[in-house]
Amino acid sequence: MHPIPGVEGFMYPNEVELQWSILIVLYPYITGLVAGAFILASLERVFRVSAVKPTYRLALLTALAFLLVAPLPLQLHLGHPERSLEMYLTPHRSSAMAMFGFVYLWYLMVVLLAEIWLDYRADIVHKARTTSGPIGWVYKILTLGSMNVSPAARSIDDRVGYIITIIGIPSAFLLHGYVGFIFGSVKANAWWSTPLMPIVFLFSAMVSGIAAVMLLYHASCLLLKRALDMRCLDTIAKYLFYVFVIDFSLEMLDLVHRIYEADESFRSLDFMVHTRLYTSQVILQILLGTCLPLALLGAAQVLRLAESTRRKLYAVSGVLTLIGIFAMRWNVVIGGQLFSKSYLGYTTYKLQFAAREGLLSSLALMLLPLGILWVLVKLLPPFEEPQAL
Amino acid sequence: MSSNWKEAAHLIRPAVVFLIGLGLFAVARKAVIPPSFGQYGHYRAGALDDIRRKPVHFAGQETCVMCHTEQQTARNAGPHRSISCEACHGPAASHADEPGKLKPAKPEIAALCTRCHEASAAKPAWFKQVSSVTHNAGTSCEVCHQPHSPKL
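^ inputs. structure came back:
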């Protein structure tokens, strides 16, 4: 018997090569950022947390920029991306992925675009009146032909926007809960198959989305040389800490449950976590990506720190959190394919560099939403005071 | 009340855009879904005809044994009785059509036997398996075992 490079022990032939690459890691990561950013925006709108108001519009635009990119990793992964549209044309009710396509469209069309349009309408009308040239035409199209921004019309927009946000919160939960469900419902895979998966994905989505908007707000204030609203940043960090505690508790609950239950898969998975996944799971996800940012954010809650120290601390925690959540997605998607269903062997994932599913295309996919966000911020400035009623 | 409606009139516009989008989707859907989709199940019924039109490669067990009765008798006496002829000899529809003209190639024994009988931890213990390196070390399996009835 000839040993296969990268394979240890016994693997079934179809397990040797990983079918789901880094692109499938990006998919839940990007979708999570969308759901998290939207939930942060809803804090201000629905739960009346006025301190986070400076990030309200930025959070909505971030959610939109990432949502537009969310299906692209999947498209790039497919050999025939054009066939993916068939799931809209002839959806099968038993396919979680097909149903997810409709959740995605609902979220994009009914929630996010409608909410952004209603919130920005006065600004769009104002810019349509004052801007000339092609950009002026873009604004004119965005008005959809209605220039009515009277106080009564704006008040109606506000009420409708509020209702849409209320619909949007369960939709955001559904959007990311579904991504978790897609993994959690694979009963043949012991690493994935747990009913906790949707809720763990959901809370980690909220953590990553809040951290991303916090960092983007921080970065855009530095880039645009605007004063940073420290009360806003403190409040976001506080919510990030709370949500992170829930997320960490859920993940630990899953872990403790697995250890105590110790079913037939446990020895194999435990070996994997201590060997092939050690760096990405123990070091990156748990220690650097969860415990350290939690300790830093917790310290900011209990210690009286100077403003500049808090700012740096939040920035470091935000970056670590995003790395940690990415590592979590990596460990779920890649980790779930590294062990054999016979629990007798392990394979290796070789990340390619300049390939369709390689590192370069993944970096491009991660930078693309930032590019879209830059265009959106130019088109619909989030930091200017909304046009008065 | 009527002034309220007037002030809310702009909300009709995104709704109209949405409905136009929905209408275009419905039209596109109608245009691209094949008419026979869903006739028998969640697939295009015409696909069955497409598959039927493909050339037949396998002759089938009954066709082979119409001529090769000797091999059939030998095989039926041993543990290979459930394996069809073409599993080892390859698709033979063209041979069945013109028996004199096209003859299937004789299978390469070393590769053929180890395909199933090479020892592997994944196979159930009752299944006959050997290590071709230690069991017969370069000697052809055929020397001891006749493939149609491999019992010694």
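Chain B has two domains: 2-53, 61-143. The mean pLDDT of chain B is 91.
thumbs up if we can close this ticket
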